[in-house]
Amino acid sequence: MMKKLLPLFLLMLLLAACSNDNKESTASENDTHIVIASQSEPLTSMVEVAAEVIEEPYTMELLPVNDNIQYNEATFNDEVDGSLSQHELYMEGFNEEAGADLVAIQPAYISNVGFYSPVYDSIDEIEAGAEVAIPSDPPNEARALLILDSAGLITLDEDTGIDAAVSDIVENPKDLQFTPVDLFNLTAAYEDGVELVFEHPNLIANIGLYPKDAILLEDEDEKRFAFQLVTREGKADSPKMQAAKRALASQEVYDLLMEEAEHEMFTPAFEPGQPAE
């Protein structure tokens, strides 16, 4: 009887060993494979270039998403390792709303945002009662209003800052009429003839417009609005995310951004080869 059981026992040991090897192999792969969610250019291309230059044994994969919500939910739910799609203020808004623990660990670039008009050639031409399309999400709404405040078109409450909202406007001498629009539909608002439209350069470029065509641009020193590599707090110092930071701060990724400088769409927010500490 013992002779019959012995081969069975050995087989079970062999299977158990194979199972452990598979688990260790999967765990090892998870420790070196990095998935980053992103949804628009040049962010997606940055991830793809970083994937080409990331140091061994790490690999990087781009997960394309279709809206401004998926990448944060996927990161928070550990479906991806991180995202490259937003500035820190937008991330903080998601954290507050979802009770999440996302952190920004590597700046990428500052998007040279501004206001475009199919009607006016300068802000001096803006007429009383003009419609102004601004982003419907609070962080980008605040960004748009701060630009208008800096230009003297409106005055915000002096206690208002990066949380500015239309309700914080204390002076509106031209009686501008504000219409909240989803960030990805603002270009359509321009095409529909809205007099003044806030937009990001990578989105307005889809209809052949660039920052040089804007009638009002954001101050170049607004580094707080730099797009960032974002991950969960518990992963921020992990070897794989540190490798991701180094890849995204590489010379090759910097060169990609500088190619876009032809239209002054973006300003790199890092020095090549110098990832954030």
From TrEMBL:
SUPFAM superfamilies: Periplasmic binding protein-like II (SSF53850). The keyword Protein biosynthesis does not apply. It is a lipid-anchor. GO terms for cellular component: membrane. The keyword Lipoprotein applies. Keywords: Lipoprotein, Membrane, Palmitate, Signal. It is found in: Membrane. Coiled coil: none annotated. Residues 1-19 form the signal peptide. Belongs to the NlpA lipoprotein family. This is D-methionine transport system substrate-binding protein.
